[in-house]
Write a structure and sequence with these properties.
Blueprint lengths: L7 H4 L14 E2 L2 H6 L8 E11 L5 E12 L13 E5 L15 H4 L12 E5 L23 H15 L7 E5 L1 H12 L7 E4 L8 H15 L14 H14 L3 H7 L3 H17 L3 H9 L17 E6 L11 H5 L6 E6 L14 H14 L3
Parallel strand pairs: 4-5, 4-6, 6-7, 7-8, 8-9
Antiparallel strand pairs: 1-2, 2-3, 3-5
Helix pairs in contact: 6-7, 6-10
């Protein structure tokens, strides 16, 4: 089956595939519901503000707005512990609404499906710097605090506990950047969840080729004269195109690319159309910050402290996490109750974006939920 959605995780950053309390909720627009016809009830959106937040960099913001989408209703046991909450964390440049696409929500959230929204309370945050949460393009530009993954995870916890009143998670699952955040949740809040499912990442520092392509994107933006130290009034076109070029390649699936674009003419046309759409939807500072946020990530030293069962899944056609490195097989041995699955290349995998094609790995989610049943 041919699908022009090879890099759906990073394609989200291109917009191709985007003092308020918890009570400010509303139904999603009609078009969003039409994209996920299997959902048992309309998703809800809301905003929560974290006040006087201190970043790892030493910077502060008086208010950080965190946008979120939820499905279902939280349930607590007699002791007041939340029993059915599921936190799902998006990739670089994405947002929580991205998980409402049929290839994800249509496989997981419907009646009788693994994360049936009539049984689970599903939390889909927009991370800081992403979606409708606070980000550089809101007005501060490059004067926005230099957030990193530790800040993002702490803000996720603030939203879950203080914003939504959830004091325990049945599952933490994440894709790409969210995969990395899942490892950090397991280490930092070891007793907060029953299970972890990281999808498409490595539990080690960002180095080697993975760091190189990120640094190329960052430098491409910063070295564009039109970037003007982040205080541009017109988007720096050259920097954005470099970023979009790399994001297309790192999110690609060679098998599908070759099948879908068998001629020079077809390939060139696709690239031209892609660039016109992608660059038009990007903000240089938002992209730079999002890619740079991984700079201090390294959970490898504390993997042995994770208490929850872990089902860790990568695909063999992932440019960002190539299997020949052997990192996942090595590091999973440190996790007391961890299992690693490497999905072989097939018509069903989609490169790095396999993390969003839930049909490919849903059986492993079912196994994890059964294994970790409280």
């Amino acid at each position: 089956m041919k699908k022009m959605l090879w890099g759906i995780g990073f394609a989200a950053i291109l917009g191709l595939m985007g003092a308020v309390g918890v009570g400010a909720q509303q139904s999603l627009p009609k078009q969003a519901l039409q994209k996920s016809p299997e959902l048992p009830e309309p998703p809800q959106e809301g905003d929560f503000v974290v006040r006087d937040f201190h970043f790892q960099s030493g910077e502060t913001l008086a208010e950080v707005r965190l946008h979120y989408t939820t499905l279902g209703t939280p349930v607590k046991d007699a002791g007041g512990r939340t029993t059915n909450a599921v936190l799902i964390l998006h990739g670089t440049g994405g947002d929580g609404r991205g998980f409402l696409r049929p290839i994800f929500a249509g496989v997981l959230f419907g009646l009788g499906q693994p994360l049936d929204a009539t049984k689970y309370f599903i939390i889909l945050p927009d991370d800081i710097g992403h979606g409708k949460s606070s980000k550089p393009s809101d007005g501060m530009h490059a004067h926005f605090p230099q957030y990193e993954y530790a800040d993002m995870v702490e803000l996720q916890r603030e939203l879950v506990e203080k914003g939504l009143g959830v004091n325990h998670l049945r599952l933490v699952m994440g894709t790409s950047m969210g995969c990395m955040h899942s490892w950090m949740w397991g280490e930092t809040f070891a007793d907060f969840m029953d299970a972890l499912m990281p999808l498409a990442c490595q539990p080690v520092a960002i180095a080697g080729r993975n760091r190189i392509w990120r640094k190329m994107v960052i430098d491409g933006i910063r070295q564009d004269p039109d970037w003007k130290n982040g205080d541009y009034t017109v988007e720096p076109r050259a920097g954005l195109q470099i970023g979009a070029d790399f994001l297309l390649i790192v999110g690609s699936a060679p098998l599908h690319m070759q099948e879908d674009l068998p001629t020079r003419e077809a390939t060139d046309k696709y690239l031209d159309d892609f660039m016109k759409r992608s660059v038009a939807g990007l903000d240089a500072n938002d992209l730079l910050y999002a890619v740079s946020a991984s700079r201090n990530y390294d959970p490898s030293g504390k993997l042995g402290e994770i208490r929850a069962p872990v089902m860790f899944v990568n695909s063999a056609d992932d440019f960002i996490n190539p299997p020949e490195l052997g990192i996942a097989e090595r590091e999973i041995k440190k996790v007391p109750n961890g299992k690693f699955i490497l999905l072989p290349v097939s018509e069903e995998t989609h490169g790095h974006g396999t993390h969003t094609y839930a049909a490919v790995w849903q059986q492993y989610l079912k196994d994890l939920l059964a294994q970790s049943r409280p």
